[in-house]
Design goal:
Strand order of the largest sheet: 2-3-1-4
Order of helices and strands: HEHHEEHEHH
CATH superfamily of one domain: Reverse transcriptase/Diguanylate cyclase domain
Structural class: alpha+beta
CATH topology of one domain: Alpha-Beta Plaits
Number of helices: 6
Largest sheet: 4 strands, antiparallel
Distance between the termini: 60 Å
Low-confidence stretches: 3-9, 174-182, 184-194
CATH class of one domain: Alpha Beta
Strand content: 15-25%
Number of strands: 4
Shape: globular
Helix content: 40-55%
CATH architecture of one domain: 2-Layer Sandwich
Mean pLDDT: 77
């Protein structure tokens, strides 16, 4: 996995040790060059945003959120192969460049990452939502700007789907005044709300 930069520390932020946006953009440009010169070369991008991570750091301080950042790093890099690349774009956004991976393979990877993230206890990190966008190199997305636009658009579509699901779940939830207490849970609903 190609995530850490020990020979060029100016390309990585301290805690995460991930490549930065500038280096990530250069790496993306190189992958595009390979794909343009070799039609058999394919790759995909996965853009991940941990909604609220940056503002949590601003509100709680770096020391309080260091463990969350370390968990983010573990989730992002735990499932990557030797040729895969991870960088921090800035704030709470991260980019994975995945050579020789199809869009469907990236969707499966994204679901594993989401499962790993949501398995966290409902602490600070468990309360942060993960939004994911995926784009594969194609004629429609064959430049750095085109690929960033495609993966960004897909991430915002994921964010919209997630917010719609949360709103639907909230609308279906019983109002607080009609929720069952532990004592009521022992009786059938027909008796509790009769």
């Amino acid at each position: 996995m190609n995530t850490f930069s020990h020979s060029h520390p100016e390309n990585t932020p301290g805690l995460t040790k991930l490549w930065n946006r500038g280096y990530g953009t250069n790496r993306l440009d190189a992958e595009i060059g390979r794909a343009q010169s070799d039609p058999a070369h394919r790759f995909s991008l996965v853009l991940i945003q941990f909604d609220g991570l940056d503002s949590a750091t601003d509100q709680l301080g770096h020391i309080s959120t260091d463990s969350v950042w370390k968990r983010v790093l573990g989730v992002l890099t735990g499932d990557l192969g030797e040729k895969d690349f991870c960088c921090r774009l800035g704030g709470d956004e991260f980019l994975l460049i995945l050579p020789n991976r199809t869009e469907s393979e990236c969707r499966a990877l994204a679901e594993r990452l989401r499962r790993d993230w949501t398995s966290a206890p409902r602490t600070l990190e468990g309360s942060l939502e993960m939004s994911v966008g995926i784009a594969s190199y194609s004629e429609a997305a064959s430049t750095v700007k085109g690929m960033f636009c495609a993966v960004d658009e897909d991430m915002f579509a994921d964010k919209d789907r997630s917010q719609s699901l949360q709103a639907a779940a909230a609308a279906l939830a019983l109002p607080a005044m009609t929720r069952r207490t532990p004592a009521q849970a022992q009786r059938p609903l027909s008796q509790v709300f009769a």
